[in-house]
Design goal:
Layout (H helix, E strand, L loop, with lengths): L14 H9 L49 E13 L5 E12 L4 E13 L2 E2 L9 E4 L6 E4 L6 E2 L3 E15 L3 E12 L2 E14 L4 E14 L5 E2 L12 E2 L2 E17 L2 E14 L7 E5 L6 E8 L5 E14 L4 E11 L4 E14 L11 E12 L9 E2 L4 E2 L4 E2 L13 E14 L3 E14 L18 E13 L1
Parallel strand pairs: 16-22
Antiparallel strand pairs: 1-2, 1-27, 2-3, 3-8, 4-7, 5-6, 8-9, 9-10, 10-11, 11-14, 12-13, 14-15, 15-18, 16-17, 18-19, 19-20, 20-21, 21-25, 23-24, 25-26, 26-27
């Protein structure tokens, strides 16, 4: 038996990345429920942004008992995600299609294609001011102006991504299952290639499964306009640029899945990861402000800088309980890293089985409705700053910082986030299933303390609201 590997790392927990991850993972998986038992679900594999770390490898599903050869079976999943943030921020459209073929020798081959298009406005890290602010776009070819009191948003933000993943799962004997995967991803300013392997072993009359997974990823970051030198002036003659940068990531996941009884399935995962190389977001900056007035001063804007290494640890616990008719799914995840981020995630779903209202006996077995509630809490990174104070953390006389690292990225700030959603699905004919998921996301960053002067009257931590709609269709033949 196999449950999911848990959500992505907190930095990837922005509303957009959470939605994109969902579109390419469990929302594409079959929702079938075995009579009297709870089956496995697909493990999520969200695509990481250029400034974050990938999700841990997912352990393979439990081996199945060998049987006589049977004709090959195909499963095709498809989905399209529509995502929108309030206030004219990011909008995204992401179609996904995957195909899996299982032959008579207990070998499954899979291929998945993901495309997404992102447009809108993204926070650049600068702090609001009582007067309008003008910024140069990353390419250096245009400018954009932010209204007085408004959060600085880069309106030139846009991106397109294509990702291709290939997988193989093979049963080895009566108690082992091997999973291999390779993936490539390309954006205008980012390239990634990854490999992973996982092995599952059954024990205790197939009621316990131990899984071990390993994933390697190599990234190349190619920022528009070049890579800014961190903690240097962001604009003007003193701004410095470098060539492309790289990052390597290693993740290890150990999981234990236990069939407690015919109605209760439980999983516990330990994830360890380390990334080395370029972790900075090349499109983020910090404001330099006067410590008394709160107005931008001196060099005004500075390129952010993050440490060149990040180690991560996560603990994940999930329980699925099949009631007389319905299914309860509750999970908890604790995350910590050497950047000082600590995060807690609680996710609860209740699946109402409505029976064969739609007719047929498709993949899902019957019509269902599944409400969901997810809450997330995160502490700030040690080097997170809302701004740099002139003459303290930053000196415009020497154009240097008193800090080794600093970032105003809201994804690294202390924040609270909640998701409310509902999914509905049902059979189509004898081998198909449709699904619709609608979710509302609300993220509330903590307001920075000790805001100087004019900053005290400005909204320094605006709430982010987002809506995601996912349409899915699956068919087996």
């Amino acid at each position: 038996m196999q449950l999911s590997a848990g959500p992505a790392a907190p930095q990837a927990a922005s509303p957009l990345r959470a939605a994109l991850g969902a579109a390419t993972s469990t929302l594409l998986a079959t929702a079938a429920l075995a009579q009297g038992t709870v089956p496995a679900t697909a493990a999520p594999s969200p695509s990481p942004p250029a400034a974050s770390s990938p999700s841990p490898p997912s352990p393979p599903s439990a081996p199945s008992s060998p049987s006589s050869p049977s004709p090959a079976e195909w499963k095709v999943d498809s989905a399209i995600l529509f995502y929108s943030e309030s206030g004219g921020r990011v909008r995204a459209i992401e179609p996904v299609v995957s195909a899996r073929r299982t032959d008579g020798n207990e070998t499954t081959l899979g291929l998945k294609l993901t495309l997404d298009s992102l447009t809108g406005a993204s926070p650049n890290g600068a702090v609001p001011q009582p007067a309008p602010q003008t910024f140069t776009s990353p390419s250096g070819e245009s400018h954009y102006t932010v209204a007085a009191g408004a959060p600085p948003l880069d309106t030139s933000f846009h991106d397109r991504r294509a990702a291709l993943a290939a997988t193989m799962e093979r049963t080895l004997g009566a108690a082992h299952k091997l999973s291999l995967a390779a993936n490539v991803s390309a954006e205008y300013d980012f390239r990634s290639i990854g490999l992973s392997a996982a092995l599952a072993r059954d024990f205790n009359d197939r009621n316990t499964t131990l899984s071990v997974g390993l994933a390697l990823e190599g990234d190349r970051i190619k920022p528009v306009g070049g890579t800014p030198v961190g903690l240097r002036p962001a604009f003007g003659a003193l701004a410095a640029r470098q060539s492309d940068r790289t990052r390597n990531v290693l993740d290890v996941l150990v999981g234990v899945t236990r069939v407690v009884d015919r109605q209760w399935l439980m999983q516990f995962n330990l994830g360890l990861g380390r990334g080395s190389g370029y972790h900075t977001d090349p499109y983020k900056m910090l404001s330099v402000v006067d410590g008394a007035t709160g107005l931008v001063a001196g060099d005004r804007y500075v390129a952010e800088q993050r440490p060149d290494a990040r180690t991560r640890t996560s603990l994940y616990w999930q329980n699925k309980v099949h009631l007389a008719r319905d299914v309860v799914d509750v999970s908890y995840r604790y995350y910590r890293d050497n950047w000082g981020v600590r995060a807690h995630t609680l996710d609860a779903r209740y699946r109402f089985e409505l029976g064969a209202l739609g007719g047929g006996d498709g993949v899902g077995g019957g019509v269902y409705i599944e409400p969901r509630w997810r809450t997330y809490r995160q502490s700030a990174a040690d080097f997170w700053r809302g701004w740099l104070v002139e003459g303290g953390e930053w000196s415009s006389a020497t154009h240097s910082a008193a800090l080794a690292a600093a970032s105003a990225d809201p994804r690294l700030a202390a924040l609270k986030a909640d998701t409310l959603g509902v999914k509905a699905g049902g059979p189509v004919g004898r081998a198909g299933e449709w699904s619709v998921r609608i979710e509302s996301y609300r993220q509330r960053p903590d307001r920075p303390a000790d805001a100087p002067g004019a900053l005290q009257s400005l909204d320094l931590a605006p709430t982010v609201k987002a809506t995601a709609v996912l349409l899915g269709y699956s068919v087996a033949f």
